[in-house]
Specification:
The complex is a heterodimer of chains A (365) and B (296).
Chain A (H helix, E strand, L loop, with lengths): L2 H23 L5 H24 L7 H17 L9 H8 L3 E5 L5 E5 L1 H23 L4 H21 L9 E2 L4 E4 L2 E3 L6 H23 L2 H11 L1 H6 L4 H27 L1 E2 L6 H14 L4 H17 L6 H15 L7 H26 L1
Antiparallel strand pairs in A: 1-2, 3-6, 4-5
Chain B lengths: L2 H32 L6 H15 L5 H24 L7 H22 L18 E3 L2 E3 L1 H23 L1 H11 L1 H6 L4 H27 L6 H15 L4 H18 L8 H15 L8 H6 L3
Helix pairs in contact in B: 1-5, 1-6, 1-8, 1-9, 1-10, 2-3, 2-4, 2-8, 2-9, 3-8, 5-6, 5-8, 6-8, 9-10, 9-11, 10-11
The chains are: A mainly alpha (365), B mainly alpha (296).
Chain lengths: 365, 296
């Protein structure tokens, strides 16, 4: 990691560290809940940023991977295996701590998979599915790629909505909390708000550091050359299809992890998380962040999701994201946080200030 | 399954399929002149149904439909003028994102102008219960309207592209835009006309199918992806093949209901889309040589 990135990461670290302090000073501690959720959504976006910005491949099905992570854990932790208790296999799994015994709200015994195990499953499922889908899909380009990934997203959405074990239109609720450390558990309880925010921040930093290192490595350079021209990088001996697949799988895992933690944090997941509109949102965030700009994606990912979760946009929620897509693509296809754009803005401001000064001087004379 | 039921399925398949075919033709018209896949194509269908529904309370049905087609055509033209015309060398990614954005905006506008309610135009002849007996199958007269009007659209477009000067100019644009421009064809106007045409026929399709399938503000995405499936199945840009492909897809969907639960009907369609994209992206009616010349 170079100096500039190290500086940026440490700034982010400080911001995360100070945020609970600021919110408690302003007496808006409830913001932390939405901030935590926005961080988990932002993790999905930065994963997609690698695929869209650096490798130049669009994915309109990122919400599908998000829901794969979420639903994997939701199903496995709400399943009740108590009636099979006593059989050899179940006992073995209990001894290995794969299954945990607990009491539900009705004080009945429930036996379900430990969230540690489902975390592992969430990642593995995302890897397997993105591998299987990625091989044929990534052979396509442009419109075909967009439609194919969107088609995949819709399939997952329809399956989620139509399958009984996945809760159909109701989704799955009452997902148990995920106890990571004795003093840290992922759930929506108000008393754990600050710990949860810090944990989300920690996961985000971890993900960012991984991605930044990846961008500045051999793989990252290969990906950027792939974005520039696939033929040229192919002829330079870069195995483009391999790298495309890797980055697709990486994005899927990031999305799945985001889905996993958000499901435990919210205590449930619904089919709308898999919808096409959600995928479009992730794309919009990457676009407004400036495609190949992980920091821009991160800033807008947290900002836009936070505003949306706070209900600032009201019933225009989807329309705002649609408008963002169009406006950004027409007026600033490089995103809003590009150095060039900022420089131009500063120059323009200076010119305007000078004009005003001149006018004032004239009037003074 | 006896013969009557099979015939019933066949008719419902052809009805749905011909609507998909019209949407696919809408995709093709814009694709041919601009190379853009317009993701907002499904929204034109929705707008057609919605606008006609609003007008048909105050005027006769046929006038309402004509007005709906004209207004949707104007909307299509405006979209091109405002959002697409002045882009300089847009990348494919940019175009995808913009048209997806447009489809969301149109949908949200429809949600706020009308609302979430399901609407339907009245049946063109008869009502919900009237039926026509054809070879033992009882079908609604609206089915005949759908099939009739979509065939008229297809025939009309074929004649338009073959014999009118504008149609020929549009075909020239799709062959080679620069060369067409050199020959004195106003390529920008042709692009605009292609948006008007594809919005207009989308709206007309939305009107004729509205009594059967109802119109809701969010029907666009599903229709767009099915229309795209048909366009791909027939080979992108190939309108006469789209008709055949549309009917094939409609029949598959109609018969799949008897085997799979209807909740998974769309899964089958999109599964077909993905399979075709993976193994024959040039479409089922085109040769391997064609595929070799084109990038997918």
């Amino acid at each position: 990691m170079n100096k500039e990135n190290l500086k940026a990461v440490s700034v982010l670290f400080t911001i995360i560290l100070l945020t609970p302090l600021i919110t408690s000073l302003l007496d808006v501690n409830f913001y932390l809940t939405q901030l935590t959720m926005s961080i988990y959504y932002a993790i999905v976006s930065i994963g997609l940023c690698m695929l869209m910005g650096y490798a130049g491949q669009i994915s309109m099905g990122q919400a599908a991977f998000f829901s794969i992570g979420g639903y994997t854990t939701a199903v496995l932790t709400t399943i009740n295996l108590i009636e099979y208790k006593g059989s050899f296999l179940i006992n073995l799994l209990m001894k290995l701590r794969v299954l945990v015994l607990d009491k539900n709200v009705y004080d009945n015994d429930v036996l379900f998979f430990s969230p540690w195990v489902t975390f592992f499953f969430a990642i593995v499922f995302a890897l397997i599915i993105s591998f299987v889908i990625g091989i044929p899909v990534l052979k396509l380009k442009g419109h075909y790629l967009a439609m194919a990934t969107m088609g995949f997203g819709i399939i997952i959405y329809k399956i989620v909505k139509g399958t009984k074990i996945l809760g159909q239109a109701d989704g799955i609720s009452a997902v148990p909390l995920f106890k990571i450390l004795p003093f840290l558990s992922i759930d929506g309880d108000i008393s754990n708000r600050i710990e949860n925010f810090y944990f989300a921040g920690f996961i985000l930093l971890l993900g960012l550091i991984i991605l930044i290192n990846l961008i500045n490595s051999r793989v990252g350079r290969a990906l950027r050359s792939l974005h520039g021209s696939e033929e040229a990088s192919n002829s330079m001996g870069i195995n483009t299809s391999k790298y495309k697949l890797y980055v697709f799988m990486l994005g899927a895992v990031f999305a799945s992890i985001g889905g996993f933690f958000l499901t435990h944090y919210n205590g449930g997941i619904g089919p709308s998380e898999a919808g096409v509109m959600k995928s479009v949102r992730y794309v919009a965030i990457v676009a407004v962040g400036g495609m190949a700009n992980i920091w821009g994606t991160l800033i807008f990912g947290i900002l836009l999701n936070f505003l949306s979760l706070r209900g600032v946009f009201g019933s225009l929620d989807d329309a705002v994201f649609g408008a963002i897509l169009i406006l950004v693509m027409i007026f600033a296809p490089d995103g809003l946080i590009k150095k060039r754009f900022l420089d131009a803005l500063i120059v323009k401001c200076k010119i305007i200030i000078k004009k005003i000064q001149l006018k004032l001087n004239k009037e003074g004379n | 399954m006896n013969l009557n039921i099979i015939l019933q399925y066949v008719f419902s398949g052809i009805t749905v399929g011909s609507i998909y075919a019209v949407i696919a033709i809408g995709f093709n018209i814009i694709y041919n002149t601009t190379g853009i896949i317009n993701f907002a194509q499904g929204e034109f269908v929705m707008l057609g149904g919605m606008i006609a529904f609003s007008f048909c309370k105050v005027m006769p049905l046929y006038l309402a439909i004509i007005l709906a087609v004209i207004i949707t055509g104007i909307i299509g033209s405006l979209l091109e003028l405002i959002f697409i015309r002045h882009l300089k060398k847009p990348s494919v990614l940019q175009m995808i994102v913009i048209t997806i954005g447009l489809s969301i905006i149109l949908r949200e506008i429809a949600l706020h102008v009308w609302d979430e309610q399901v609407r339907a135009l009245p049946f063109f002849t008869g009502n919900e219960t009237s039926s026509v007996n054809i070879l033992g199958a009882n079908i609604s007269p609206q089915v005949l309207w759908v099939i009739g009007i979509t065939s008229l659209i297809v025939i009309g477009l074929t004649l338009f592209f073959k014999y009118t000067i504008i149609g020929q100019a549009m075909r020239a644009c799709s062959e080679n835009r620069n060369a067409a421009g050199l020959c004195g064809i106003n390529t920008k106007a042709m692009v605009n006309i292609s948006f008007i045409l594809s919005a207009g026929i989308g709206a007309l399709a939305g009107c004729v199918v509205s009594p059967l399938t109802q119109t809701t503000y969010d029907m666009g995405t599903d229709l767009a992806i099915k229309g795209f499936t048909v366009a791909i199945l027939g080979g992108l840009g190939n309108s006469s093949a789209a008709v055949a492909a549309g009917i094939i897809l409609g029949l598959i969907e109609a018969f799949s209901v008897s085997i799979f639960p209807s909740a998974f009907q769309d899964v089958i369609t999109i599964g077909i889309l993905l399979t075709i994209l993976f193994i024959r992206p040039q479409g089922i009616f085109r040769s391997k040589q064609f595929a070799a010349l084109k990038e997918f």
